[in-house]
Amino acid sequence: MRALLSVSDKSGIVEFAQQLLRFGCELVSTGGTARLLREHGLPVREVAELTGFPELLEGRVKTLHPAVHAAILARRDDPAHMEQLTRFGYQPIDLVIVNLYPFDRTVRPDTPENEALELIDIGGPALLRAAAKNYRWVLPVVDPSDYSRVVSALASGDPATIPLEFRRELAAKAFAHVALYDAQIAAYLRSEAFPDLLPLPLEKLRSLRYGENPHQAAALYRIRGYSAQIAAWRTIGEVELSYNNVVDAASAWQLVWRFDQPTAVIVKHAAPCGVAVGESITDAFARAFDADPVSAFGGIVALNRHLDESVARALSQHLFDIIIVPSIDPAAEDVLRRRKALRLIIAPPWHEPAAVWRTVGDVALVQTPDVPAQTPENWQTVTSRQPSPSEWNDLVFAWTVVPFVLSNGVVIARDQQTVGIGGGQPNRVDAVRLAIWRAGDRARGAVLASDAFFPFPDGVEAAAAAGITAIVQPGGSRRDNEVIAAAERLGIAMVLTGERHFRH
């Protein structure tokens, strides 16, 4: 039995090689792996001894030789294959233990291209592909966590006796490992935002408690080669996150970092139900909760400031599923951990990625993130009445929140606090009425933000009847003149942003 070893991740490789030697396996290796094994007193043959050639082109060519690849690819049940090996003096290779440098962790976007190209492994992927192709007779091993399983399988006999199902599993892992590696290189070299081919290699981070519903299985993956901020989240709690938990927490965390002031966001079922700015984070949370206490029950709270014990005590008075913060006092953690079902997430501040992905059915949609391109300085007041300074501040606040409301999205705000949110409705006037219903008397003197234009004046008329004094919306309807005329007639200040913010 013969094994070829060449690994980037050297965890457990010495112990694994020692076990292989006990099975009578000859070890063949290159470079750093060979040096490591020799340092531990293990007998190792250099690949150059098999090929009869030294490393060429400064190490670019090491294992690319028939003595290696024919030894891996030969079908053991084909007499012609075995005769050819014998004729050329090649001996079969039965195990290929190879894992590749994580290209995305070794090469950064600012790495000079000439350096990055030299780090691209050619021989390693070729070895894995050959071994995985011939998995009926050769074991491709890429994952150190599989070493003990391979040892257990070999203990029962030679490689040929290892169950086919296990061999297929190892082969699938090998091809996935190579695919991940190639995708990382493609991501580095790619200059086009939306190329014809966009490989998105997914690396499992954790299993989730369940999917959107308890009968659905789910897992969380990161896209290797791209930023994965959620991968850096640290979860504290006795209950694992579910699919919905991740969706809601991500939405809350993205929104809360749209504000520089102390801000609290409460999300329920993928939509904000309470958002508020405060003089302190304690004040911000109290106001966000007061925005819609009924919907906040069992929701997810995001705070963009450090969580101390006093804030923790305020939070502990209510039932929440998750609290996500940038940092936390140990005393605050002790207070919140008394509630068994509560999860704490400690996360770095959110930064908008270059692109966002979602799946629809069996396809993927890719787009740039929805970050407002038009600043308030570019907005246009289209009514004779100008918003007051306080109305203007509230319009900016509401406009910051509304992209996170399911379309059709409407946000009613007053004094930097949401007082009514309506979204997910098939028509805009119903979204306005829903937001007004939630706001109640607090709608009087408040402002309203709409994520898209008003197709008819009815939404403006409903807002005016509730006491709304100013509206911000994108504009762009064929009936803009009618809508603006209604606002003028009703004494509402109207501002157009020129930019829609649907969230489907």
Could you walk me through the main structural features you see in this protein, from its secondary elements to its overall organization?
- The structure is a single chain.
- This protein has three domains: 2-189, Methylglyoxal synthase-like domain (Rossmann fold, 3-Layer(aba) Sandwich); 229-346, 3-Layer(aba) Sandwich (Cytidine Deaminase, domain 2), CATH 3.40.140; 376-496, 3-Layer(aba) Sandwich (Cytidine Deaminase, domain 2), CATH 3.40.140.20.
- Helix content is 37%, strand content 19%.
- It is an alpha/beta fold.
- The strands form five sheets. A six-stranded mixed sheet has the order 8-13-12-11-9-10, with helices on both faces. A six-stranded mixed sheet has the order 16-21-20-19-17-18. Strands 3-2-1-4-5 form a five-stranded parallel sheet, with helices on both faces.
- The chain has helices at 13-22, 31-39, 47-51, 66-73, 79-88, 103-106, 113-118, 123-133, 147-155, 164-189, 243-256, 281-291, 293-296, 309-315, 330-336, 389-401, 428-439, 458-466, 480-490, and strands at residues 2-7, 26-29, 45-46, 95-99, 139-141, 202-207, 219-223, 234-236, 263-268, 271-277, 299-303, 320-325, 343-346, 356-360, 363-367, 380-381, 410-413, 418-422, 447-450, 470-473, 493-496.
